[in-house]
Design goal:
GO terms for molecular function: carbon-sulfur lyase activity; metal ion binding. InterPro entries: CENP-V/GFA, Mss4-like_sf. Keywords: Lyase, Metal-binding, Zinc. It comes from Pseudoroseicyclus tamaricis. It holds the Pfam family GFA. This protein is mainly β and 121 residues long. It has a single domain, classed as Metal Binding Protein, Guanine Nucleotide Exchange Factor, Chain A, CATH 2.170.150. The protein has 1 helix and 10 strands; from the N terminus they run βββαβββββββ. A 7-stranded mixed beta sheet has the order 6-7-8-9-4-3-10. The protein has a 3-stranded antiparallel beta sheet with strand order 1-2-5, with no helix packed on it. It is globular and about 35 Å long. The relative contact order is 0.27.
């Protein structure tokens, strides 16, 4: 599985099985992505990142990786974790990924409904 940013400065390859996709509706994800953030997670050993993402420390424990050239939001990681989440929307089709659940739905935007029947937290 391969993916990357809009301008091509940052690309990544996923070589291990990735988790199902979770859609995060928290305020930080909505502000950084422009809607909700859909991502899959993989061990660090299962992803190769080409290029140098810029990192924004969003909280004491979390950083968000993006392309400094085009601004594409690509990665989310608990600092020091051996896993990293990558943007499902940045993966080239076919992805083989499947949306499994919605999280932080109490913070979702008031302009959309979640009506796909998947679990909501």
């Amino acid at each position: 599985m391969t993916g990357g940013c809009l301008c091509g400065e940052i690309t990544f390859e996923v070589t291990e099985e990735a988790s199902p996709v979770w859609a995060c509706h928290c305020g930080q994800c909505r502000k950084q992505s422009g809607h909700y953030w859909a991502s899959s997670t993989v061990p660090l050993s299962g992803i190769t990142i080409h290029g140098e993402p810029s990192w924004y420390q969003a909280s004491e424990n979390v950083r968000r990786g993006f392309c400094g050239g085009c601004g594409s939001f690509l990665f989310w990681q608990v600092i020091g974790s051996d896993e990293i989440s990558f943007a499902a929307g940045a993966v080239e089709s076919p992805t083989g990924l499947k949306l499994e659940r919605h999280i932080f739905t109490a913070d979702k935007g008031d302009y959309y409904a979640i009506e796909d029947g998947l679990p909501q937290e």
